[in-house]
Amino acid sequence: MSNLNVEALVRPELAGFEPYDPAFTPCDINLSANENTHELPPSVRAALDEALLRTPLNRYPDPLANELRDELAAWHGVERGNIMVGNGGDEVLFNLLFSFGGSGRTLVVTPPCFEEYKNFAKMCSTDVVEVWRDAKDFSINADALVAAAAQAHIVMLTSPNNPTGDLVDPALVRRLLAETNALVLVDEAYIEFADAGASLIPWIAEQPRLMVLRTLSKAFALAGLRCGYLVADPAIVDVLAAIRQIYSEDVLAQAAAVAAVRAREELVPVVADIVAEREVLASALRELQGVKLWPSSANFLLVRMPHAAQVRARLRDEHSVLVRDFSYAKGLSDCLRITVGTHEENQRLLSALGAILE
User: Fold this and answer.
1) Final residue in a domain of this structure, among 198, 231, 263
2) Neighbour count for residue 328 (Cβ, 10 Å)
3) What's the pLDDT score for residue 1?
4) Which of 242, 282, 305, 298 shows the shortest CA–CA distance to 95?
5) Are residues 195 and 334 in the same domain?
6) What is the CATH number of the domain that holds 318?
């Protein structure tokens, strides 16, 4: 047992942090992490395997992942200079706050939302102002958000929002850009599951303070790869390029990501099936006694039911189905977040829930 008083040595703003724990338990069906639960098409899997096999491991990767940046830029109709690749979207988020946050600067968020925004801000000595969503429908008070942003340096919004599943109103983003001087990040990790035209990437050329975060973890079914990217003004990208961890995106991740982006059209039917299953699952959940849920444009549903924590435990222990418990969180009492699974997984979930709630 060490007698080192590490608390006296660590930076004060980092005291009390604990390792990230998603509360994972091995189960037959894991619907807790918003992963893509569907199999990759065989052709896409083969393209990834081929790319990995031909990638040498004895050389360092391209520090800025330029081949991948070029593929992403061509897809989104921007230039390489508009793209910054990261080791998951989390690295990009941290680097943004490391670069543009800091002591005496403020981040505005709209909880309930992705908790890591606030955690990364604290790590970077950045103050956080929370503009809480409406308790009933999770809508954002636009006037309150704009007022808070007018005194802030960065605003982070998720669209679709995690864990509520709703899209950000583009009119609100326009107000933030027009009426404040803050940098505005729109995190579009789940945007492929929303209706066509929901992304704000086309605004980038005319809105230099707008940044859009994307990932290959969700629709591309590559959560284990850890590859995210930012679409932003080249001046912002240049700042992030200067401070990022060198070689943070390894050669295998870059090779697989390039292959996946090139094969993106083959993933369209997979995403469409998830969206269709989302609507089937939502309709069935609404039929269960005591259950309330909110419309979602993502690959998950936020559900409220009596004794949610106990229901989650029984799903895990009696039926080997894992969902995410948010009932402990402010504003989310008795709420579970359920990832949309395959048809078979969703039916097993519904059967288990029906038995438990009866």
Assistant:
1) 263
2) 10
3) 64
4) 242
5) no
6) 3.90.1150.10
- The Cα 35–Cα 220 span in angstroms is 10
Residue the block writes with tokens 């993502």: 298
Q: Which of 212, 10, 180 is nearest to 106 (CA)?
A: 180
The three-class DSSP label of residue 335 is strand
d(CA 157, CA 88): 17
**3-class SS of residue 31:** strand
Q: Flag whether 12 is in a domain.
A: no
What is the DSSP-derived secondary structure letter of residue 133?
P
Q: What percent of the chain has pLDDT above 70?
A: 100
- pTM reported for the whole predicted model: 0.96
Same domain, 203 and 330: no
Reference 345, options 27, 25, 40; nearest CA is: 27
Q: How many domains is the chain built from? A: 2
For all residues of the chain together, what is the average pLDDT? 96
Interval 259-315: pLDDT, tens:
999 999 999 999 999 999 999 999 999 999 999 999 999 999 999 999 999 999 999
DSSP state letters, 151-219? T-SEEEEESS-TTT-PPPPHHHHHHHHHH---EEEEE-TTGGGS-TT---GGGGGG-TTEEEEEESSST
> In terms of domains, do 341 and 193 share one?
no
The answer to whether position 11 is within a domain reads: no
Which of 13-22, 110-119, 222-231 is predicted least confidently? Answer: 13-22
Cα dihedral 103, 108, 112, 114 sign = negative
> 119-164: per-residue pLDDT in tens?
999 999 999 999 999 999 999 999 999 999 999 999 999 999 999 9
Which residue segment(s) compose the domain that 310 sits in?
22-40+267-357
